[in-house]
């Protein structure tokens, strides 16, 4: 429990294609679960509200965020230099249901689009950690499939931010297969990440995804058609990030409104988009 | 924390009608959900809320879904919101929320919104009955008249009522109650008839001259005035150039509006002789001093609390330091600009 | 400069009543003194003013000293000014300033302020006579009636008149002309009777509902409406906590007010069928698009010109690029938000 | 003549006690006269308006400003790092009347209070340059007296920003005597700079001063009592700095209002404060 926001200190900033990883040391940080997020704002800031970012990496009180500069707030963070002070509020939000996912690592597909890849290195780290508590894994249960989609080769530079998490996973005996696709074909295959998913889904029965809303909806279409479990980390403009303002609502499948910051950001496909089909055909729509 | 503890030698306490506050800093309705924040980041907040009194979000007679998203957009020096008063309605509020509100170690100022002047009276009556039923009234309270405050000292010293009279789409057509002196007086009077305790009228700034409205609220029986609610504004989607917010227009708040809020507070302080709760763009301790100098004896933190839910408590500590450094009491600051 | 030259393939020209503008970007009255800036930093500005039409500062019947200093204070996302309309009075203006205004290679929109509705008619008549005397009228203009625009095409196509109907301390007491539909109509009508050309009514935002005022201006005979003037605000001295500005209150402008200006522009565009000149917090090309989408066919740069006197010209160039990139014409943007 | 504001680049920032010197390279800069000023604003700025600063040093297109951080605008400039972009508008304003001063350098007293010392290194440089055009100076005509007053020893660190101008002056055969006083006596003598002036004025007949308004008024009292010429660089809150807004007016001695940015910032003592006495007594009030 903290006595206020935490004041972090920038430990480094590294460019990955069009994105950057911001490392911040945050004394007093409570460990975050994968899929949780934090609200960041430079101590000297020209914007009014803090901005929400998924935990990308975490080692004790050393945090990493993968950020895509899209407007004033993210650009300002992109100008951070080592030693700058940053207000940090978090971790907050409902992350991925590790209990469910860890047991099915081998049947899991991770789908990231653009900066939506941000939460997954921490998820992989947690899956690896969770397996350490199990005596033995059945064959294939340590194979994780990661599908990443980007606009172009420049944006795809963000995928390099995965490297260390992937290597740590391999070191722990996991096999991580990362497939990459770009919309303009300037790196890897040409197409959408959902093209990859449609090809690769068979043999898997749970998908976690994060990216543009349209991508998530398309992923859900594929999963629901084959009755596959799916989980989505969704976005909404936020003011408070802690449930005060009711500003971050999205409409759920049943028409009700839910706050992304409290009921989310991770929602099941059924909750967010609609029921899945009953029979898994192994085929995609 | 960089902020030193409150200096015990500085008396920050304020009397707001029958309610005594330990210091002048509270939250603005709809901008701080104590229970949610406690659950999200710090359970200790329930034992030590960062406000001198807690103001929950506006409750209406019927449940409301609120506006469609997006509901929030940042603008220069502030933000627009089009939340649209989502709430569970007064009955569910009484059943689910009131008990835990009453268990807080702080006074509570309930906030209600109506869609006609008459609804304020209904809401006040319903909440009064609930409070009486909660057994908080004085032992001799049975059969007491609602307008006799004496016998109900025990709960009126802990629970106040704020009337949000600046909702859109109300009885009198497209002009909201809070821009019409006649409707303002009627709404406040209706609530006053049913509510024996602290009664705060919350005014809208979307008005040419706020003074007739403040006078009408005073005539209706308000025991305090809070101001300002948000300013009606519009933001467009950058690409489509269509209104960005689900509710089309939204309310502007944050530092951008502070000069406007200060001016309105100053004008109302020159017009009515009631305690004022000042709000609008309060971010730092200088803003607190400014609001008080313009006539606010209590100051509410709104949107700035989105950056830092602990802000009101921090500002109270900083206020104590400022007063001590200047050798001032609260009374030296109050109305100093006049 | 980082800005490319205006793309000739994009037509930015706008018709504002009888006046044709090369593009939609002008300055807001009182925020850009072309002759002073030319003298201070770049004489070339007189040959190539950075505006499609030049709007000088408000002129009144009598000379005015303006308010005592300080007159300027920065606030979050904007500034307060309490300049108080200092000017040399209409006679000296006609003798000293009008000739050089008429020699500019741009149309001019004169701006006048009155302290009663009747003064606008006097000012309009005086300026019309001066323009007629300047020999700018058509050859057949001798003895022409003021209300017959045809015969005076030669100067009415180059000179317009904006009525600043939001001055403080006016005839009708503490409420300014621009907050009263009756006075607004009277002021505009009085000017219209004397002024055959473009007549712009500049509205105040310090009002509950701007639509009746816009309607009154239209009824009075305005050929266009400009909005918004500044919002009344207050700032205190940080140390003394007394009002900082010499004039006590001041007018808020800058990005802070943009959402409010957009909303008012949107409302007026839904109410009257007149061209609008939108202003309030315009800083970047997105703001220009936003204003136009809300209904402004011409956009004025105010306080942001204090940072960069060349801003209107820069924005016009950027607007051309934006339109070309989107494949839009001005007509595609205009009223797009509605 | 420029086609817009100029975009400068920060060449360095150096602390001098509580102040700092900001060096900016400004392509396209027209040479400024001493006492003129420029309006500065970082390209990425959290304040709305630019801020006015006297030219402190100038060598071609390399400018120096001496800045005291007092609020958001000056603090933001104080966080500049080399390579940052800064918008620059200027030079603007009416500076010191070099013609009059250069001829009387030996009878000139320069009085600076706090960051009000900022314009004087450039003035000294100009006096030195002007003397180069004269064939020979009479004895004493190359003696310049500089009196500097500070709050305390920390603020007095600002005086070190004078060193290079002073050395250049000495190298050109000028003798520069710099006397320093602090209000708390923590460096040099204890007292006000006007105490120094009262002692030192005799033998001089023109004073230029810049500092807090109260200091300027006190300097004028001394000068006017002895009929001494005086010139003041004055301050006012500005919006445009170029005569557009009429926001920067101050009341002159005759009760009229004048814009500091256009009619000033340098005003004669008579204009700003009132007529000087007719007889020079050599004594101070
Ligand atoms: C739970 C959660 C986790 C997130 N995790 C990450 C992450 O790990 N990495 C990351 O890079 N981002 C992440 N984001 C997104 C990130 O919060 C936003 O990109 C950030 O807030 C943008 O701020 P900005 O100031 O740069 O842009 P802004 O200028 O504030 O714009 C932000 C977005 O708001 C919308 N918007 C605001 N105003 C307008 C307008 N007038 N017209 C149109 N659109 C408008 C647009 O969608 C725009 O992209 C996350 C968001 C959430 C909610
Ligand atoms: C011609 C000229 C030359 C100058 N030269 C220099 C120079 O060489 N070096 C230098 O350091 N400075 C110089 N200044 C002063 C400098 O411009 C100011 O210090 C600067 O504008 C301060 O900006 P800021 O954002 O840091 O402070 P702000 O927060 O803008 O405050 C600036 C000043 O404005 C006043 N003020 C504004 N708002 C309030 C309020 N609400 N209550 C009370 N006071 C208020 C105060 O006087 C305050 O000190 C010069 C000024 C002028 C006009
Ligand atoms: C997101 C949001 C929700 C709000 N909801 C309410 C509300 O339910 N009832 C109410 O009376 N005021 C509501 N307000 C107005 C605030 O209480 C306050 O009057 C206003 O925000 C001005 O203060 P600020 O500038 O400090 O935010 C809301 C404001 C915001 C920003
Ligand atoms: C310093 C200053 C002086 C102004 N003087 C006038 C004036 O003389 N006449 C007038 O009609 N409006 C005047 N205005 C209002 C502007 O023309 C404009 O309506 C307002 O500033 C909003 O635009 P902005 O936010 O872009 O500044 C003035 C505004 C400022 C900031
Ligand atoms: S961001 Fe405020 S409730 Fe979610
Ligand atoms: S600062 Fe605008 S006129 Fe001087």
Describe this structure in words.
Chain A has helices spanning 72-78, 98-102, 120-132, 153-156, 163-171, 193-200, 213-225, 269-272; strands spanning 6-16, 19-25, 37-42, 51-54, 57-59, 62-67, 85-92, 108-113, 143-150, 175-182, 189-190, 206-210, 229-233, 249-251, 257-259, 266-268. Chain A has 285 residues and is an alpha/beta fold. In chain A, strand 12 (206-210), helix 7 (213-225) and strand 13 (229-233) form a beta-alpha-beta unit. The N and C termini of chain A lie far apart (47 Å). Chain B is of the alpha/beta class and 338 residues long. Chain B has helices at 34-40, 89-102, 117-133, 153-156, 181-194, 211-220, 258-269, 285-293, 304-307, 311-326, 330-333, and strands at 14-16, 19-21, 25-27, 72-75, 78-81, 108-113, 159-164, 199-202, 224-227, 231-234, 249-253, 276-278, 296-301. In chain B, the strands form three sheets. Chain B has a seven-stranded parallel beta sheet with strand order 3-13-12-9-8-7-6, covered by helices on one side. In chain B, strands 4-5-11-10 form a four-stranded antiparallel beta sheet, with no helix packed on it. In chain B, strands 1-2 form a two-stranded antiparallel sheet. In chain B, helix 3 (117-133) runs parallel beside helix 5, helix 5 (181-194) packs parallel to helix 6 and helix 7 runs parallel beside helix 8 (285-293). Classes of the chains: A alpha/beta (285), B alpha/beta (338). The A-D interface holds A 44-46, 76, 79, 81 and D 44-46, 76, 79, 81. One flavin-adenine dinucleotide (FAD) sits between chains A (37, 47, 51-54, 65-68, 70-74, 115, 118, 235-238, 260, 265) and B (73-74, 235, 237-238, 244).
């Amino acid at each position: 429990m903290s006595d206020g926001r935490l004041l972090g200190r920038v430990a480094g900033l590294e460019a990955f294609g069009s994105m950057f990883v911001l490392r911040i040391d945050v004394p007093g940080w409570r460990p975050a679960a994968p899929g949780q997020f934090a609200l960041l704002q430079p101590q000297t800031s020209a914007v009014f509200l803090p901005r929400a970012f998924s935990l990308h990496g975490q080692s004790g009180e050393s945090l990493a965020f993968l950020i895509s500069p899209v407007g004033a707030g993210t650009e300002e963070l992109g100008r951070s230099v080592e030693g700058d002070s940053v207000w940090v509020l978090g971790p907050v939000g409902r992350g991925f249901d590790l209990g469910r996912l860890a047991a099915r690592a081998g049947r899991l597909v991770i789908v990231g689009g653009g900066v939506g890849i941000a939460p997954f290195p921490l998820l992989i780290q947690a899956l690896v950690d969770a397996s350490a508590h199990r005596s033995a894994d059945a064959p294939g249960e340590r194979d994780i499939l990661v599908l990443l989609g980007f606009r172009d080769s420049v944006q795809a530079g963000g995928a390099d931010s995965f490297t260390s998490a992937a290597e740590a996973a391999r070191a722990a005996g996991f096999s991580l297969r990362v497939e990459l696709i770009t919309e303009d074909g300037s790196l890897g295959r040409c197409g959408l990440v959902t093209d990859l998913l449609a090809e690769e889904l068979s043999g898997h029965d749970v998908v976690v995804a994060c990216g543009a809303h349209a991508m998530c909806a398309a992923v859900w279409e594929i999963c629901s058609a084959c009755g596959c479990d799916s989980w989505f980390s969704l976005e909404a403009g936020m003011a408070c990030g802690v449930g005060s303002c009711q500003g971050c609502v999205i409409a759920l499948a049943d028409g009700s409104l839910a706050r992304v910051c409290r009921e989310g950001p991770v929602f099941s496909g059924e909750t967010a988009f609609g029921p899945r089909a009953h029979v898994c055909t192994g085929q995609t729509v | 924390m960089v902020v030193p503890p409150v200096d015990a030698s500085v008396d920050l306490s304020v009397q707001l009608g029958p309610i005594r506050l330990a210091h002048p800093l509270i939250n603005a309705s709809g901008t701080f959900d104590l229970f949610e924040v406690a659950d999200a980041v710090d359970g200790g907040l329930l034992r030590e809320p960062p406000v001198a009194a807690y103001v929950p979000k506006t409750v209406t007679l019927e449940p409301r879904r609120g506006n469609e998203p997006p509901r929030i957009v940042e603008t220069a020096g502030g933000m627009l919101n089009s939340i649209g008063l989502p709430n569970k309605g007064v009955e569910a509020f009484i059943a689910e929320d009131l008990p835990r509100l009453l268990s807080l170690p702080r006074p509570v100022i309930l906030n209600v919104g109506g869609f006609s002047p008459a609804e304020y009276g209904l809401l006040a009556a319903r909440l009064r009955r609930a409070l009486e039923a909660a057994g908080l009234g004085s032992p001799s309270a049975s059969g007491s008249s609602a307008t006799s405050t004496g016998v109900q000292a025990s709960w009126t010293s802990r629970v106040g009522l704020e009337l949000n009279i600046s909702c859109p789409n109300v009885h009198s057509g497209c002009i909201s109650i809070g821009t019409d002196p006649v409707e303002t007086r009627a709404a406040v009077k209706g609530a006053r008839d049913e509510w024996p305790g602290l009664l705060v009228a919350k005014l809208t700034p979307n008005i040419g001259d706020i003074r007739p409205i403040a006078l009408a609220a005073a005539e209706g029986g308000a025991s305090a005035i809070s101001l300002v609610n948000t300013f009606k504004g519009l933001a467009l989607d950058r690409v489509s150039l269509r209104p960005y917010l689900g509710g089309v227009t939204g309310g502007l708040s944050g530092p951008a509006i502070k000069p406007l809020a200060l001016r309105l507070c100053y004008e109302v302080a020159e017009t009515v002789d009631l305690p004022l709760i000042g709000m609008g763009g309060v971010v730092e301790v200088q803003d607190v001093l400014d609001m008080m100098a313009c006539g606010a004896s209590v100051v509410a933190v709104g949107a700035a609390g989105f950056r830092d839910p602990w802000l009101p408590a921090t500002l109270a500590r900083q206020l104590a330091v400022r007063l001590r450094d200047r050798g001032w009491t609260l009374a030296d600051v109050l109305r100093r600009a006049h």
